[in-house]
What does this fold into?
Amino acid sequence: KKKHKIAILSGDGIGPEIMQEAYKIIEILKKKFNLPIETSEYDVGGIAIDKHNNALPENTLNGCKNSDSILFGAVGGDKWNHMPIEKRPEIAGLLNLRKKFNLFANIRPCNLNKKLHYLSPLKSEISKKGFNLICIRELTGGIYFGKSKYDQKKKYAYDTEIYSEYEIQRIAKIAFQIAQKRTKKLVSIDKANVLKSSALWRSVVDKMSKDYSDIQLTHMYIDNATMELIKKPFTFDTVLCSNLFGDILSDECAALSGSIGMLPSASINEYNFGLYEPAGGSAPNITGKNIANPIAQILSLSMLVNYSMNLPNIASLIEESVSETLYNNNLTLDLVQKNKNYISTSEMGNKISEQL
Amino acid sequence: KKKHKIAILSGDGIGPEIMQEAYKIIEILKKKFNLPIETSEYDVGGIAIDKHNNALPENTLNGCKNSDSILFGAVGGDKWNHMPIEKRPEIAGLLNLRKKFNLFANIRPCNLNKKLHYLSPLKSEISKKGFNLICIRELTGGIYFGKSKYDQKKKYAYDTEIYSEYEIQRIAKIAFQIAQKRTKKLVSIDKANVLKSSALWRSVVDKMSKDYSDIQLTHMYIDNATMELIKKPFTFDTVLCSNLFGDILSDECAALSGSIGMLPSASINEYNFGLYEPAGGSAPNITGKNIANPIAQILSLSMLVNYSMNLPNIASLIEESVSETLYNNNLTLDLVQKNKNYISTSEMGNKISEQL
Ligand SMILES: CC(C)[C@H](C(=O)O)[C@@H](O)C(=O)O
Ligand SMILES: CC(C)[C@H](C(=O)O)[C@@H](O)C(=O)O
It folds into this structure.
């Protein structure tokens, strides 16, 4: 069997702690499921700056190139916030990896489990319906990478939101395909009443929808989507966004679910190479206390198994183990109601492992 | 006494109905408070397209030019959605007026009254604290008006998010001044970890803060702000945004308050000329039923009295009349809990008038 090489980039803050729990699952995948996984660790982010003066050292980049996928923890922290932006862990580390590996499709499932509906900041009338949506965000184009300038002398600055038909097609294709495996409801987000890039976005997605006649496609303006998500999150299924709108909306969804510690993400390219990481950040305030929720990291691994190893059934088993563990009322600090008992990061990892 | 001329642009949908109630307040301002107000009506939006084939007819534009302020209702509706974007009521009518009169400062107060906390989609743990914030949105710059192109042949399109130091300074100045009259907490929203226009925005606002040493200024990334607003809306006071981020965040705030029918807005230029309009839209689904909430329109009038007539005390009286009316449990359909009694649009106007 061909080996599947995973580059493990734990990074900063809670990254290493929650990665430890993902390792437990990897061990099970290797030993019980006989998956030919091989892991190697590399420095990224703040720790890489401290050790090698570079958030994405040559050695890390090469390690990733020689791997089949990347399991990423989290990067960043106050310690590195004085640095020029382009050298900081988030930009030099994360944005760079996205661009270098052409990881144009960011996939972020976001669920609110009915049984855990109290986690949501929404009132129970809304939250008790739960929700189950998935954001598909374009990740290597748009205003993040368009032409930009900061003119010190003339005292102006600009950034360019630019999309080609091709870029829109390839991300929309992924969204249509994912919608087909779900409830077949796709909503594409734009600001086509003002932006020309959005008008193009809308027309390309519309044209493509003819090839996906089973999909019920709608369009929504970003400002309206921001409101509808709050009022009726349960009406959304697959949500397609540009890079900037996806940055905003996927975080809004995370806040509405109230469980950012459980949300994984996948950033993939056309060869199914992917970077898999928790949606939350490095959470310096809870670092080293053994209280962080490792579920986002474990579900990121399950997305890796699904998208980069192409083993959806085994991915589902991991997901079910997580759900079962939660149903059995094994909850980390972020998930319990006031004054209720909770389990530690490592206990959560153990429980999910046992379940699996 | 010099006359204050108000151009009344009721527009489409519920616009004319709710404007009717604002007229009642205007009558009181004229008769009881002896304010030298003069009103003239002009067509705008869909109705102007129907009558004059132009969402902003020459006659309306001239009428506005000869006035001291504009009281605006709402524009748009399905009937005109087949038209090319740039001819539609929202763009040819509203965006055009903003640009023509250089209305660079959009001011949108957004409150959740503790007594009406059940209106909010947030759970009562959060909503019972109420909130009281004000969004200051730049309205004539940024990606709404930067260079843009839709290249049919080469199949790409772009829009430019561009800001000059001067544009940032003039909107930030308004935000600092408004914060000074409130709790002195100002948060400026940007995406300075990615966008150069945001880096400029942040540095200009930072520099200005030295002249406002009484103001506690913080910066927040747009994605983080989207989450924090949901989790802790009560921690926000004055919120400063670019055009695009303000479009998104102010609508998010509106959704969180649960009472879009009560939110006014002011769009002003440096000569205190302003366009005052409800934050909600033309609401075709409830048009003509005498159930729309006229409070947003009445509070828009009170913002006009405050900013364009420079009579903050009288503006406060109107606001207090609205609050009193609500406290006395006079509520329109959008404000009542299930199966409770409600009053009509015109009754609400009458109650507020009596109170005043
Ligand atoms: C850190 C930042 C550059 C990044 C982004 O905006 O893409 C983050 O917010 C994310 O969503 O992964
Ligand atoms: C109709 C649209 C162009 C407008 C905007 O985006 O500014 C609206 O959403 C608003 O906020 O007033």
About this structure: Chain A touches chain B through 55 residues (CB under 8 Å). Chain A has a mean pLDDT of 96. The first strand of chain A starts at residue 4 and ends at 11.
